Amino acid sequence: MRIAIAIPCYKVTRHVMNVIAAIGPEVEVIYAVDDACPEHSGKFIEEHTHDPRVRVIYHAENQGVGGAVVSAYRAAIADGMDVVVKIDGDGQMNPALMRHFVRPIARGKADYTKGNRFYRPESLRGMPAVRLIGNAALSFINKLSTGYWPIMDPTNGYTAIHSAVLRQLPLDKLERRYFFESDMLYRLNVLRAVVQDVPMDAVYADEESSLRVSKVLPEFLGKHIARFFKRYVYQYLVRDFNIGSLYSVLGTLLCLAGLLFGSARWLHSIATGLPASSGTVMAAALPIFIGIQFLIAFLHHDVSSVPREPLCTEVVDDA
């Protein structure tokens, strides 16, 4: 397979040359995207590398990590690449792991692979506690919004994707900033692409991350909620109406009916000073209990509906 590497370059001049030097000969093209870097990383790379595989792409304005990766994706599609691996230029992602990301795609077992720093307890050594808690919370929210329940560490930027899947993605609609990786998972689920985690260790160099969990968590939460409802409408109401659709509709209606009836009787009790009878309490509680059971059944159905058949089944024997 023709493999390309995408490296977003923004304030990474201290590490990017070591990253490029560690990329193996199996890679055909290396796209280094200067995302309007104040350190002029593109010129720095051109002046210091002798690797003929390196192609520098320049952005006149900063577009964020998503914008940089999308530019590399477009170049890879135009050049006829088969797989595009995205790694950062700050030295926190080991290029030697690349074959583990490419192998499931080459063997027709996945359309998209991504790193998972939570797979082994040993991999979490050195991860700050705030990042550990923040990533765990975002991982659970991401499961709801994208439908990829087995996937953890959704903000991990070490990824690989089959170019045939790239051609089906709406690249113009992808998020350009920190939500890029999560948005990719949402778009991939719409296509019913198979995503697979690849275990990797958490590595922190001397680069200071501009990602602040306290700042992005509320923003991410809003975007995840919006994508959950978009995915639900498309997957359970537009594309198909199945048993999961029935569970979710009935569960929601029963919970609302119980809450509304119970609230009305509670307000009546306050106004009249008369306590509600046990029968009235049960009439309000029973629909809620049954509705919750239906919603749990819906979640169980959603978990079992994770895409399992890859869109791209081409197999490379020596992968």
Describe the structure.
With 319 residues, this protein is α/β, with parallel strands linked by helices. It has two domains: 3-236, Spore Coat Polysaccharide Biosynthesis Protein SpsA, Chain A; 241-304. 49% of the residues lie in helices and 12% in strands. It contains ten helices and seven strands. It has helices at residues 16-21, 41-48, 64-78, 98-106, 129-146, 163-166, 180-191, 213-238, 243-272, 278-304; strands at 3-9, 27-34, 54-58, 83-86, 112-116, 159-162, 195-199. A seven-stranded mixed sheet has the order 3-2-1-4-6-5-7, with helices on both faces. Strand 2, helix 2 and strand 3 (54-58) form a beta-alpha-beta unit. Helix 5 (129-146) runs parallel beside helix 8 and helix 7 (180-191) runs parallel beside helix 8.
Fold topology:
Layout: E1 3-9, H1 16-21, E2 27-34, H2 41-48, E3 54-58, H3 64-78, E4 83-86, H4 98-106, E5 112-116, H5 129-146, E6 159-162, H6 163-166, H7 180-191, E7 195-199, H8 213-238, H9 243-272, H10 278-304
Helix pairs in contact: 5-8, 7-8, 9-10
Quaternary structure state of the chains depicted: single chain
Q: What fraction strand?
A: 5-15%
The CATH superfamily of the largest domain is: Spore Coat Polysaccharide Biosynthesis Protein SpsA, Chain A
Q: Which geometry do the CA atoms define? A: elongated
Class by SSE composition: alpha/beta
CATH architecture of the largest domain: Alpha-Beta Complex
Strand order of the largest sheet: 3-2-1-4-6-5-7
User: H/E series, N to C?
Assistant: EHEHEHEHEHEHHEHHH
Unreliably modeled segments? none
Report the biggest beta sheet as strand number plus sense, adding barrel if it closes.
7 strands, mixed
Through-space gap between termini: 9 Å
Tell me the Rg in angstroms.
Answer: 24 Å
CATH topology (level 3) name of the largest domain: Spore Coat Polysaccharide Biosynthesis Protein SpsA, Chain A
Helicity level: 40-55%
